[in-house]
Structure formats: C-alpha cells, structure tokens
Amino acid sequence: MYRRRYNTNNILIFVIIILLIALVLALIFGDFSAEEEDPQIIVDGNLVMEYAGDFGVSIEFLQMILPDYLVYTVGGEYRYHHLDSSVALNDYNWDALSYTEDGRIWYNDENYANVTYGIDVSTYQGEIDWQAVAAEGIDFAMIRIGFRGYESGRLVLDEHCISNIEGALAAGLEVGAYFFSQAITEDEAIEEAEMVIDTLEGYEITYPIAFDMEEITGANARTDSLDIETTTAITKAFCKRIQDAGYEPMIYGNTKWVASRIDIAELKRYPLWFAQYYTKPLMPYDFAMWQYTNSGSVAGIEGSVDLNICFKQPWLD
Asked: Where would I find the beta strands (DSSP E) of the chain?
C-alpha cells in the first residue's frame, strides 16, 4: 500500500515562511515606539529571527521582505534598522538588470540613460593593460591612491596608483579614486585627503574621490572603537577637504556600514558607492554606484577585479 511521506525540510521551510510573513505584518501594523529608545534593534531574541538563523535564511531574503529596514548581522546576530525618512530612497528598476555568462551585470532603464560600467583597482591587480580593459566595454576606473595602516596608522601610497591613473586616462577611461582610511580623528582624515589631492594634481579626474573606511576582519584595527558620531565626523572632514579642492567626494560602504557605523542622514549630501555582492542591490536608500562583485574578470587584468555600475553622475550635471 502506498503511504505518503512528508518531507521534514519542506515542513520547516513552510513554518519559516509563515513566521516571516507574521513578522512583516507585525512590523507593518505593530507598535514602533521602541525605535525612539534604540534605533538599532537586536532581533536575535525574536522567534522569527531565531528560526532565520537556525535555518540559514539569508540577509538578502530578509531585506527583500523588510523593505522599510536595513537588515544585517553583527557577530552572527540578526539586526534591523528602520529607515530614516529624511534620506532619499532610490527609484531604480531592478527588472532592468540583465546578466551575462561571464558574470557581468547590465542595466537598461530609459529613466537612467547614462549608465556606465567600471572597475576599481589597487596594487593587488598588478600591471594592467588599460587598452585591453577599455576594449572590454569598461567606461571608468576607481583607483586606490593609498591607505592608512590599520595597526600602525602610517600613510602608504599605492605603488601602482600613478601608472594606473596614467594608463586609464591614456585608454580613454573616466577616472575617479578612493582612499582606504583608518583615520581616528578629523585631522587624520584631512591628512588622508591632502595625500589624495597632492597625488592627483595635474590629472583630469572626472569621477568622485571616495572615502573608504571598512571593518577589518580577523584582526584588531585602530578604528574598531570609534562610535557613530566620531566616524561620521571623520567622514565629513575627508569629504569637505576633497570638495574644497574641487573634486566630488563619495562615501563607500555596505549595508552594515550605512546602518550601524555612520549617520547616513548627516552624510546624505554625498553620493553613496554601495557594496553588495548579490544579483541585485538591496539598498533602499539612494546610491550612485554599485560594486556588485569582487571576483570579476576583465581582459587586461590578471586575476579577479571588482566590477561596478554607475547609475548616474550627478557630479557631471
């Protein structure tokens, strides 16, 4: 006699989906008074989030069902952060994304007719054949100027930055730049900006200069103990000095950085370069550029390279 067998995994997945739907309804119709006390709510104690963690529900999936929040993890704990209504949201159409077999993502939207495609590079890419890069349909390059040591605090110029700038410009690419910061004071941020300005003198830089401060994984960094207010002030100091020198400043960050390490409302005047390695960017706030992979392949570069889409260029308006 045939007897139907129930798949335990399917039942668990069904339960998770029901719980997640219940969470969405609770968030829509529930009481948000607690947000006034703590805008970053630890939700690992919530039943839904416990199941999400137990069964490996992705942050991307949670972000899709919680569009009014930024969702991320800290130390394995799921967290969500309510959006700031003073910060503009993006209006991109992610149905306009298409994908190629070699891992490239393209965006075709009549509302954004001037989309460009680029890479960001540093000494890790070694010697680059920029003519071959240009022939691959790459429009722009964000070039690392240097970095500050996360332990020593010493400023270091990227050994390939000059050859990369000159090579990219000679190949007809638009050029921007970024600096990997580990500044712990506003004065140090200004010092980093001065290094960038001095290095770029005499070159035609038409894309932004990005402030890139990231968490250092697997090691202790001098920036680990910075609070949101200090990190925001440091970011502002760098961006203001870059702007005063006649360049367009930009802020680089992922969801966790935007939600928990800076006050994005205080920095909303600067375009955001958003980093997320997924099939589409799940950032509700407006952003100008998306870094969508760190394992791209481009002719002229040996090994992997970061790939980017620039949806709009307000600095060229």
From this structure: 40-42, 69-74, 77-82, 97-99, 105-107, 116-121, 140-148, 155-157, 174-180, 209-212, 249-253, 272-275, 289-296, 305-310
pTM for this predicted structure: 0.86
125 near 142, Cβ under 8 Å?
no
Pairing of strands 140-148, 116-121: parallel
Question: Could you say which DSSP state residue 109 is in?
Answer: B
CATH of domain 94-316: 3.20.20.80
pLDDT lower than 70: segments of the chain = 1-53
Establish how many alpha carbons lie within 13 A of residue 269's alpha carbon, considering only the half-sphere containing its beta carbon: 9
Domain boundaries along the sequence of the chain: 8-82, 94-316
pLDDT tens per residue, range 278-314: 999 999 999 999 999 999 999 999 999 999 999 999 8
- Going by C-beta distance under 8 Å and a sequence separation of 6 or more, which residues neighbour residue 180? 144, 146, 147, 148, 212, 213, 214
